[in-house]
Amino acid sequence: MVTLTTNKFARITTLCVLYFAQGLPWGFITTALISFLASKGLTMAESGILLAKANLPWTFKLIWGPIIDTYTYRKMGKRRPWIIFALLGMAMSLITFASMENISNNVQLLGWMFFIHNCFASLQDVSSDALAVDILDPDEQGIVNGSMMASKVVGVGFGTIVMGTLLTKFGLVFAITSMFILILFTASVPIIFLERPGEKTFPWSSYKSNKKDEKLVRDSFITIFKSLYKSFITLPPLSLSFFMLIGFITKGINSGIM
Q: Average pLDDT, whole number, for the chain?
């Protein structure tokens, strides 16, 4: 069985595919769909509300991190169960809303679709980053990180151009259903590639005990939060956080104007 810790091609492919899956619906939702709805009469205020609901779940990343560190199912891998869960959540949120009637005419319902889908997408992002930290060798981190971001940009472009074309030619339900299929296909990658030898593919699969993993101590949710707090109250990370906050505020303003 090919595993991420033993096969360089598998870990790079998996991480890049996961980032592509993040970019795909993001490009479709924030560019193609918003533009399409604007041509149908969506006001600037309504588009602003939709984009705000799409962006809000990404602030939850501060919470997702300690949660995925605290609650794990090691027999299937430390990060893999969360990634599979998040991808399936992304897929199901899309197909659920695609099955509803007149969704394109209901801004409030579309806003909830944006919000719920991106809750799962932000969880997938945090889990994928944690996986990268766990499995990448130090000399791989730079180039693989760059490849992951490049894959996300490609995903955004694909979601904007290809999914946007499907949207205009065949309608919203067809475009969302197509994305649902693509994200399910993406979920097959972390299902195929295990993190470490001996782990389960599914909860009901056989398991070979890994004594090294069994010895790892799992910190509580409160302990992890206390550790984060102690780390961020020192001047260097606090200063960096401030500059990052200013940077993201200006980026958010620019995105809203665009």
A: 88
Contacts of 34 (CB under 8 A, 6+ apart): 42, 47, 50, 51
Residue 179 · residue 14 · CB < 8 Å: no
User: How far, in Å, CA of 32 to CA of 13, rounded?
Assistant: 27
State the Cα–Cα distance between residues 162 and 116, nearest whole angstrom.
23
- Identify the residue whose tokens are 């005990």: 209
- How is 116-162 classified by DSSP, letter by letter? HHHHHHHHHHHHHHHHHHHH--TTTHHHHHHHHHHHHHHHHHHHHHH
209 pLDDT band, cuts 50/70/90, is: low
The answer to whether the CB of 78 falls within 8 A of the CB of 17 is no
Are 135 and 11 in contact, with CB atoms under 8 Å apart?
A: yes
Inter-helix orientation angle 61-70/221-232, to 10°? 130
